[in-house]
Every structure is written in C-alpha cells, then in structure tokens.
Amino acid sequence: MFEFDQYLGFLAFLTILTIGFWLMIFLMAILPYWIGGALYENWKLKREEKKNQKNEA
Description:
The chain has one helix and no strands. The chain has one helix at 4-56. 0% of the residues are buried.
C-alpha cells in the first residue's frame, strides 16, 4: 500500500499539522490574555499619573 518513504512523509505531515494545531490553540488562548493585561497595566499607569498630577497641584 505505502512505501516506506511515503509513510515517513505522511508521519512528517501529521506531525507538522498537529504542531500547527496546538500552536494555534495556544496563541488563541494566550494572546487575548496578554493584550488585555498590557491594556490594563497602561490604564492603571495613566490613572496613577493623573492622580499624582492632581495631588501636586
């Protein structure tokens, strides 16, 4: 049915496909969390900066 090199090619294809699938799942889970955390940190810093300016005046 399959020759040995075709079998190795098929295994390489499945490996690459599986790695791509899990990378996509990982990025879809981590990137929103990462971006949300960065936006929250910027918001906190700006709020603290406004508060410090108001206290100095």
